[in-house]
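User: My instructor asked us to take a sequence, write out its structure as tokens, and then describe one feature of it. I'm not sure where to start. Here is the sequence I was given:
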Amino acid sequence: MAVVKRAYRDVAARLQAQDLEYPATLSTEPELADALAKRLAHDGIETDADDMLVASSTQQFLALLAMLLQRRSPGETVLVGVEEPGYQTAMDTLEFHGLGLVPMPLDEAGVTVEGLLAAVDAGVSAVLFTPRAHSPTGCCWTAQRRRALADALAPHPDVWIIEDDQFAEAATLRPGSLYSEPRLRDRVVYLRSFSKSIAPDMRLAVALAKQPIRHPLTLAKSFADGWTSRTSQRVLAATLTDPRLDELLTEARTEYAHRRAAVREALRQASASQQTGLFVPEYDTDGLHVWVTLPGGCDADRVVEATAQRGFLLAAGQPFFLSPGHQRHLRINAGALPTEHAPQLAAAIGEAVVGLMGQPTALLTP
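Assistant: Let's start with the prediction itself. The structure tokens for your sequence are:
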């Protein structure tokens, strides 16, 4: 919070009357473009200010891209491949704007090549990826998976590629971006936001896009809300260049990793001692969440309800899927749970599962 407060004070002290007038163009504020270019380069993504566009959020960019995709195929149902399980808000945004969704299955390294190719065969006009710190599973691309996805997409030049790098500043892993792939670069829209890594009210996102996508995306943004506050852009720039920020982000990464590890280990121990049959992935993840699978026949909604009565709030997995029948998953917000509370959480989940498994109403229809 101190970093953001300093940023606001710094920007306010330099504010002049002309800074509050209508902008001449939609170009990114130079100080923000410089700050972003350095951080993008640290992730292996080379770009310049001419390829940057700032909007109010990733959601706004998804809404604008949905409109552009529909304009490419007027009168047709436009399909987009999305991760399954995937980020609920992103899927809802695309559906709200009239797009049809095609699921792309995941493993520990993100969307599988087989899942991607199946979506392409189904006729998708675009695919949406989360390269790291995926919500809800926490999975991340490997360099090998990124290259394999690039190879699979290269023969399909009409498919747009959208990357939602929503946890970039606080992520531990750096798998790179398809935006850096020369074969794909003219149809990749790389999105980077800051609400999850810095503060939820930091409602800004940047898109990297080259022609032929950049011009219509800029035009769509101009008709949506004109421009994104230059003052807010400068505040974000001051935040990203604060000398204390990287130290704080390192502390956050370390703490999130400890909390994820504590939850996973506590769940494994509780499952072994209570014989609940919970499945906790062995591979490490990134981000805020731990994704677990309940034993066969156990209804996640009932477990969420019973666990809430024990003082812990969880999310049932079904809303993260497109199709019904996925009631055996839980998303745990490990990032919000101090490590010392992990054993109590695991015990509460175990008690809920044990208590419900003996009740016919807790079982799913085979």
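For the description part of your assignment, you could build on this observation: Residues 360-366 have pLDDT under 50 and may be disordered. Try explaining in your own words what that tells you about the chain.
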